[in-house]
Specification:
It is a single chain. The chain is an alpha+beta fold and 335 residues long. The protein has 2 domains: 154 residues, no CATH class; 148 residues, Yope Regulator, Chain: A, CATH 3.30.1460. The chain is 25% helix and 39% strand. It is built from 8 helices and 20 strands. Strands 3-4-5-6-10-9-8-7 form an 8-stranded antiparallel β-sheet. The chain is globular, with a radius of gyration of 24 Å.
């Protein structure tokens, strides 16, 4: 009997494919859900999850990496699995500093026999050039192209100098990265923006814990709940008259001071900027108002302020603005 059982197990072992090898980050497989990966990452020690900046599209952490403190980590998920970890080293104050950081990280991968350097670029776009004293201006304007790409059978690693004056490291799992999502839709809190306002609002209530506020005569639905770490946010699901789809608007709680409102705006703007590509920005006052005049809330109520930033997102666009009710508003507009 034991011989038969052993033979059966041997046949099964041969017939069944070996478990897929996944990329690793700090010794942890880049696989599983955001929550599963989070539990393992926090067990490493010295890493803290920034809960207020997490959503179903990505989780945000802060901690030490490669000898640098106060690094930011972002994990991204699709098809139910984390597929990459993005690391930003602390912002550099000079070209010499950021180049040294970049060369250090690249040097570690160059000396690691497990990875092969498959692409490398180190150049400036005219009129900028290394040694002209404007290297950090070039970095901010995305005119400094410094990038190295490393590969092995399971992993792709990209090291680059980002426009945020930080070294950016992207560690991707090839299998999970290649996963094809069912149908391309813009996402809101991890949910495809599809269906009618009623249908989508019902999903927010059923799956994300929102509560109903109002169903309007125009067909829009307002729900209330937690978003981007803020309680008591109002999410409006509205019919798009142009194409019959739906748009999403998020109103954050009203602020009673300009300092708080401005702080919220720039914190949320930074969060969006790490996920999407900025395409437009206007942060200005009109008439006799200006930032620091002490009458900023009056300017907002009188519509004498333009604070709006727009982004390109996957399958749509996103905009953040300050409304005349002294509230932050974020719009999600699917293509």
């Amino acid at each position: 009997m034991k011989k038969i059982l052993f033979s059966l197990l041997l046949i099964l072992a041969i017939a069944m494919p070996a478990a897929a090898e996944h990329a690793r980050f700090l010794g942890i497989e880049i696989n599983g859900s955001q929550e599963q990966f989070k539990r393992q990452l926090l067990s490493v020690g010295g890493i803290k999850c920034l809960e207020s900046r997490c959503d179903d599209n990505g989780y945000v952490y802060i901690g030490s990496y490669a000898g640098y403190d106060n690094c930011e980590f972002y994990t991204l998920e699709k098809c139910g699995n984390v597929y990459c970890v993005v690391v930003y080293l602390p912002e550099a104050s000079s070209w010499r500093q950021i180049k040294r950081q970049y060369n250090q990280i690249c040097g570690e991968y160059n000396s690691n026999s497990a990875f092969q350097l498959t692409k490398q670029e180190a150049s400036f776009v005219a009129p900028y050039a290394e040694g002209d004293g404007d290297e950090m201006v070039a970095v901010a304007n995305e005119k400094a192209n410094y990038m190295s790409v490393y590969n092995n059978s399971s992993t792709t690693i990209i090291v680059k100098i980002s426009k945020f004056k930080q070294v950016k490291i992207i560690v991707s799992d090839k299998e999970n990265f290649a996963c094809e999502e069912p149908e391309a839709h813009m996402l809101f809190m991890g949910l495809p923006i599809t269906g009618t306002p009623n249908e989508f609002a019902n999903r927010l209530m059923r799956e994300k814990g929102f509560t109903l506020k109002e169903r309007t005569s125009s067909g829009s639905v307002l729900v209330s709940g937690r978003f981007a770490g803020f309680d008591n946010c109002t999410v409006g699901v509205m019919l798009d008259d142009n194409d019959g789809g739906i748009n999403i608007g998020v109103l954050f709680p009203k602020c009673t001071s300009w300092a708080t409102l401005k702080s919220q705006y720039f914190a949320l703007k930074a969060h969006l900027g790490n996920k999407y590509t900025q395409t437009y920005c206007d942060e200005s006052f009109s008439d006799s108002y200006y930032d620091g005049c002490g009458r900023e809330l009056e300017a907002i109520r009188n519509e004498q302020i333009d604070y709006v930033t727009k982004y390109d997102a996957e399958n749509g666009s996103v905009a953040i603005t300050i409304s005349n009710e002294c509230r932050i508003c974020i719009l999600y507009l699917p293509d």
